Amino acid sequence: MLLRLLLLLLLCAGPRFAALADDGYRLWLKYDLLPEGSARKAWQAQAKGISLDNNAGPTLQTAASELQLGLQGLLGRPVPVGAPGGKGRIRLRVAPDATLGQEGYRISAQKDGIEITGPTDAAVLYGCFALLRQVQTGQLPDKLSLSSQPRIQHRLLNHWDNPNGTVERGYAGSSIWKWQELPEVLDPRYQDYARANASIGINGVVLNNVNASARYLTPEYLRKVAALAGVMRPYGIRVYLSVFWAAPKVIGGLPTSDPLDPKVKQWWKARTDEIYQTIPDFGGFLVKANSEGEPGPQDYGRNHADGANMLAQALGTHDGIVMWRAFVYKANSKGDRFKEAYEEFQPLDGKFDPKVLVQVKNGPIDFQAREPFHPLFGAMPRTPLVLEVQLTQEYLGFATHLVYLGPLIKECLDSDTHSQGPGSTVAKVVDGTLEKHSLSGIAGVANIGSDRNWTGHPIGQSNWYAFGRLAWDHTLSSASIAEEWTRMTLTRQPEAVAAVTDVLNKSRDIYVRYTTPLGLHHIMGQTLHYGPEPWLAKSDRPDWTSVYYHKADSVGLGFNRTASGSNALSLYAPGARQVWSNPATCPPSYLLWFHHVGWGQQLSTGRSLWDELTTRYYTGADSVLWMQQRWEQVKPALDARLHADVAARLRIQHREALWWRDACVLYFQTFSRRPIPQALTPPTRPLAEIKQLVDLYQLR
Ligand code: BDP
């Protein structure tokens, strides 16, 4: 009796993520006991055990143990693995199925139990996590019939982690990779990281920063990378490396890194062969070249295709890919940074090796809170394009502002490039269906660090989650993902689920309102990219200033990208261009991206530009108070510690929303010379005082 009680206690205490009450470590894989009731009973009857083939490989065994772990926690009972079939058992079976691709799964209720099948071990693993999701979100097992396959082939996290443990633009502690301890010490966290990724379908991880160190290609580091690959492998995850273009010079002792030099080619070929000897399922390379001071093929008069193709040839018959980033721009005060990646890459369409994908950020500038979709989408039909989004909130308030990114990612995926007529969405470009590519990919710049809760802001976890779910299936709605995540991670209480998802769904628009309404962009604090600095006029490069982007003057505000301005609009297909080209019909949220609008100009909202701008700054900041109130309402339904943590961060968020509001309203007022609309209370502090705040943050 005592033993049984102990066992039950252990099961209910939760699975492998042994943790304090709720410190966020368990992410969405919490598996706390379901409340007593019909759902728990029904699942208990269906999940008396798990059976699988005797000769199951590591991934299938992992699938079974993950399913066991989850079900035992959720159902509060032992769920043995491996016992023979029988009624009420869950069967895992690998079986060919041409309709499911490589990674798709099918879950079906059979007469004697549930069956999870798929053409590969990884597919069954995804099916197990999908079944757990059903149980966690309160679905019932009867008439269970589910099947799903990923729409995008390579679903990757990009870590911007450095060998010394720092994370570029990381706000959740230091890197989770402990290079100095590898390969001997395998922090248990690596496995927990792998399971979290597998649970949402992420199948690849670029371990290191795009501003890469050459040392990752040394034998010493490859052994460390191999150790991590060993942890990821049973979870269907392959590892990739960002490479430093000048590695042949820096660690190879060659006089050049020219991609057409035979010795350089040979060097990369030898390195690549060595990598595959150490890591047979290595995924491939990510490259940032000739961008922001990084070396690249242009240093030798070659172009991006020359560089990418040389690496693709080095991969040879190995099963790997090259992801070559299109994030490039030169400092040219007269030009428009918006157009630069397009101008460099579009002419190279059709010139890349079949193993190369070009990786393009969601928007043309740099991960701003709202950007129009990047004009390269739809403009390179002969090249598979990887969509890169940023989960770490570099320009979105770090780990202090609550911003759920589902709507941002979705907005980009759903954008219509019109490249092949209406309906040519970014999603269809990226998943390869529009332009008939068999290779496809999507990448999220990770927001993960060594903080106990992984993401610093507890709600940041939802961005990791949403990225994975959308990478798997971009037709899911961001709202349904927010709800699913909330139920799995925070609470099962229906009103609280509704309130939290309401906050999540509106949070991105609120952030845009109090920082960069109406299509303003890149007016944040220099270098650190935190807080407002719209007055920034001097920097190492003109396109790192704010005035370059907002162009405020006595006439109005905004960047004229029409034919009378930089003409960046001409990069879009006519259908897409049309939406934005007329200031009278351009959606207000994109207005200042494309037009210099007079302060007194009446907008479609009925207000003048100045009144609309100020109103949005004010309502944005006020909406943070609304978020706080909504958050207060859910207090009884949430873990107290987690609730308090988010509440405290919301207080910072409100203070800083006021900072943004006052800074921008007062600064732009020096150009508009108009009064703050009567319904709003003017800021009480002078602009000079606010400017000092920025200095404080930037530690200058
Ligand atoms: C910018 C970041 C910089 C990155 C760069 C990139 O500020 O740290 O290295 O993007 O994506 O947003 O390469």
Automatic annotation (TrEMBL):
GO molecular function, a single term: alpha-glucuronidase activity
Active site, per annotation: 292, 366, 394
Keyword Signal: yes
Pfam families: Glyco_hydro_67C (PF07477), Glyco_hydro_67M (PF07488), Glyco_hydro_67N (PF03648)
Domain Alpha glucuronidase N-terminal positions: 27-131
Glycosyl hydrolase family 67 catalytic domain residues: 135-454
GO process annotations (BP): xylan catabolic process
Coiled coil region boundaries: none
Keywords: Carbohydrate metabolism, Glycosidase, Hydrolase, Polysaccharide degradation, Signal, Xylan degradation
Domain (Glycosyl hydrolase family 67 C-terminal): residue spans on this chain: 455-678
This enzyme's EC code(s): 3.2.1.131
Membrane-spanning ranges: none
SUPFAM superfamilies xrefs: (Trans)glycosidases, beta-N-acetylhexosaminidase-like domain
Example of a GO cellular component annotation carried by this entry: extracellular region
Family: Belongs to the glycosyl hydrolase 67 family.
Subunit and partners: Homodimer.
Official protein name in the record: Xylan alpha-1,2-glucuronidase
Annotated organism of origin: Hymenobacter psychrotolerans DSM 18569
